[in-house]
Each structure stands twice: as structure tokens, then as C-alpha cells.
Amino acid sequence: MFLSTEEYLHRITHALEHVVAPLVESDFARGQLLAAVYLLDQLTDRIEYKADMIEQEIETGIETIRKIVEAIEEREGRVPDDLKSFVQEAGQEGRARDLAFRSQCDVMLSTAIDAFYANRKTFDSASSHALEGLILGHLTQIGSRDMGMYKPSTSEKLLDLGGKSS
User: Fold this and answer.
1) CA distance 111 to 122
2) Which of 65, 76, 101, 150 is the most buried (most CB within 10 A)?
């Protein structure tokens, strides 16, 4: 019988939490066991390849990079050649949209942010703040999504399991 990774890890964490943990006498050992359960629980969300989430991250990353490059070029600032090439290639049909490309987007986003700050003196105050808002908005979106992948805290389980307090 084939079990998905998620189901497999769920069965392990369920057994550790509901069968093994109640038998552990030491509060410290039980806390360590439940911490391991928590980490395994978090792992299930990271193992599965989530193509739609990766695609969305790539699209918003490319859009942010493109807007930064356009803003710099409008002010006749210097855009690194590799960044220009990336923006052109990213828009091409048939470009692979996988984890490796997402990693490349992350590198190019960092390059674009660096280019913006290197050319910041060419921006008026309002434009500079607007572009910073775009960058911070994108980074916040990524951070919020990453935080949303974590499951709710298991601190209640660490504090009280079967009437025992840690």
C-alpha cells in the first residue's frame, strides 16, 4: 500500500504524540519528544512540491524585478547586464518555471534591489518611496506566505499532556 508523504508523517507524529509521549515520565524528555513532533508536523508542508505556489512566487517576483528595472531605466540609471538579460529571458514563452528558476528569481530580486539602492539618488522622494513600498510589499508577501505554512503552535501540548505539566 502506498502512503503519501503527508499521511506517512501524520501517522508517525500521531503515534509519537498519542502513544509514546504519555508514557514518557520526564517532563524534559516529553517536551523534547513533542518538539520533535512539532518539527515533523511542519516538515509535511515543505516536502510536497507545490507547483502553483512556486508559479505564483515566480510571477510576482518577475513583476517586481521588471518594475524596478523599468524605474531605474526611466531615470537613466545603471542596470546590471545580467539583470537586463534575466528580465528579457523571463518573459519568453516556454521558459521552465521550476524550483531552480525560482532560486534564480530570488538572486535577481536581490540584484534588482541592490541596483535600486545604487541608483536611488536619481529618484525623487515620492518615486523612491513608491518603489521601496513595492519592494517591501513583495518581501512581506513572501514572508507572510512562509509564516502561513507553519501550523499553529503546539505550546499547549508542551505545557500540558495528559494532566502532566512540563
Assistant:
1) 18
2) 65
Instruction: Answer whether 115's CB lies under 8 Å from 79's CB.
Output: yes
In angstroms, the Cα distances linking 111 to 60, 78, 108, 115 are: 16, 12, 5, 6
Asked if 68 and 139 sit in the same domain, the reply is yes
Give the list of residues 6+ apart from residue 118 with CB closer than 8 angstroms, or none: 77, 78
Question: What is the Cα gyration radius of the chain?
Answer: 23
E strands present in the chain: 160-161, 164-165
| Weakest-pLDDT range from 4-8, 12-16, 158-162 | 158-162
User: What is the structure's pLDDT at 47?
Assistant: 60
In terms of domains, do 143 and 65 share one? yes
Q: Is the pTM of this model over 0.70?
A: no
